[in-house]
């Protein structure tokens, strides 16, 4: 599945066209009038911004317009043809936001669909909302509205804030609905009073991200809510609800900017819960290489055994109080609840001890079940536990349904609202425990990728049991691609040298997806060099390699204004930092010292003051970091970024591929490492005038057969390789 890099010109009839054959009751989308609107908007934007047209950008505009414009729809605007999906790898400098904005916005408006732009990082979200879309609207002549959409957890819940101010945190101490570290502390009382005051005076909009200072999770979680605890229209504060006001706004705009996590959460709830229905949506997945991994995270589950046992112990008292205070007949409370839960606590303790024995034999603080297969005795025990917990969940869910009905029949009842939120959270947590234990109880078939299953010991000695799919192509195909009206996936890193097979397998995109690899417009050979120097240590000898890196860094950084050094492990990064001394040590800021934003801000200040500055970072600094010009004139990659061996999901996938007769190293490890290398090297050249150097301190690029594959995937920098 090689990327199509054939040339063409935006505006030619063979580039943007409509189907010649239009079946009965279908509507032709890409009319001459619509083509002209796209072309005119693009030319006007280029003229007003003083930009020169880029072939790669024109091609991207054409591909998106052709893909979305050739969808066959019925008279009601519903898609009746095959899935309309295109995957476009566009190098840095293409101007992806302009390309998908100028092509998809007119089509979405003509079809009365919503355009949803979903990113993987907050930084890109802010850039699109704060700069790219306002520029596009002002300079292109396109008339459209847009808004930023966030999940419930980013907004203040007025009901929970009111309850906390009245009861000083009693609600959360009674029944922790989340991890114990999020229980409310009385120390936050002044903060909560300030929140109410600022919100009431219109000085704060209730958005966590717009609070004047960073809010700790322990302070924020008690005053926000999620889907399971929100009482919706039955809430006393519904008319002033921060989340629902924001939601009403996004349903009135043409373009919604959000994150991929919210899209996936919405799809898993059935679609159309927070965002518009998938059938009425055209999705743009920017930074689309993250989408499969994020889907895996959303479909995974875990249970902390001690924590679960502790909050279960509070449940009988909660249900007894509920019946006493509300007379709720659905509770049917009796002493058996106490016995059930005591038995559950014993069984959870037995499961924990069984797992600790396995861990004692294996060593370490984490254990992954080989091939994802849980041993028979633990699998059977998990099945029995899941059955008991599910019975309890059914009873609690019945209470939730009864409370919902009683609240709907009432004219607003603070007491019922309180209980519905509380019991709804308990039902959600029980459901999560059942999901995990059922996953452990299932024995996977031989013809499909298994689930990854593992457990680990936390710092508080609690044992966390986890489960995750290793492949989500079928899930994404069913939840997203078959339902969306249309979709565009784009990123600078989706293929390996133009080969999209790895991404197609990960993402489950339709068979007839259009794949396109577009080169960057930058003059890489003139602007930068790639250096693989002679080295004295092999990365597989960790201690020797670490010592070598620390010895080489001062000379490598000499004469540079801004340097980014990228590591693959905390251990090596911190060890190298500790080995530095004198002036070199003073230049370094390492990930973890401050927030990423603070490190980047201080780095820019140093360079602006004509002082050299060096950033040490891990994977999160290898993408989404924009340091143009002298802010980054040298990128140093310590090692080829192969996946870490203790990742249970990746290890289980590789194990399964090898068992099927495949080669996980060439099919997974090499493509994934190549994409991470491209991302890391992409930090160097950010504009057409940037210059600099990439140095890779890993001789395996020269000594191993796969080295040539990795080198060929990188941008065509001028090569200086000591062979």
| Tally of structural domains | 4
Query: Unreliable runs, pLDDT <50, ≥5 residues?
Result: 2-27, 169-185
Q: Categorize the overall geometry.
A: globular
By CATH, the superfamily of the largest domain comes out as P-loop containing nucleotide triphosphate hydrolases
Textual characterization of the structure:
By secondary structure, this protein is of the alpha/beta class. It folds into four domains: 32-145 and 253-296 and 473-518, Rossmann fold (3-Layer(aba) Sandwich); 152-247, no CATH class; 300-469; 524-721, P-loop containing nucleotide triphosphate hydrolases (Rossmann fold), CATH 3.40.50. It is 47% helix and 12% strand. The chain contains 26 helices and 18 strands. It has a seven-stranded parallel sheet with strand order 3-4-2-5-10-1-11. A hairpin with a 5-residue loop joins strand 8 and strand 9 (463-469). Helix 12 runs antiparallel to helix 13, helix 13 packs antiparallel against helix 14 and helix 24 packs parallel to helix 26 (707-713). The longest helix has 34 residues, at 376-409. Residues 2-27 and 169-185 have low confidence and may be disordered.
Characteristics of this structure?
723 residues; 4 domains; 18 strands; 12% strand; disordered N terminus
Compact overview of the structure:
With 723 residues, this protein is of the alpha/beta class. The protein is built from 26 helices and 18 strands.
Give the secondary structure arrangement, pairings included.
Blueprint: H1 32-49, H2 55-69, E1 85-90, H3 96-111, E2 114-119, H4 122-140, E3 146-148, H5 158-167, H6 170-174, H7 189-200, H8 217-220, H9 242-250, E4 255-259, H10 260-268, E5 281-286, H11 291-298, E6 301-304, H12 305-326, H13 336-362, E7 366-368, H14 376-409, H15 414-441, E8 451-457, E9 463-469, H16 473-481, E10 486-491, H17 501-507, E11 514-518, H18 524-527, E12 528-532, H19 542-557, E13 562-566, H20 570-579, H21 582-587, E14 588-590, H22 596-608, E15 613-617, E16 634-637, H23 648-659, H24 664-681, E17 692-696, H25 700-703, H26 707-713, E18 718-721
Parallel strand pairs: 1-10, 1-11, 2-4, 2-5, 3-4, 5-10, 12-17, 12-18, 13-15, 13-16, 14-15, 16-17
Antiparallel strand pairs: 6-9, 7-8, 8-9
Helix pairs in contact: 1-3, 2-3, 3-4, 5-7, 10-11, 12-13, 12-15, 13-14, 14-15, 16-17, 19-20, 23-24, 24-26
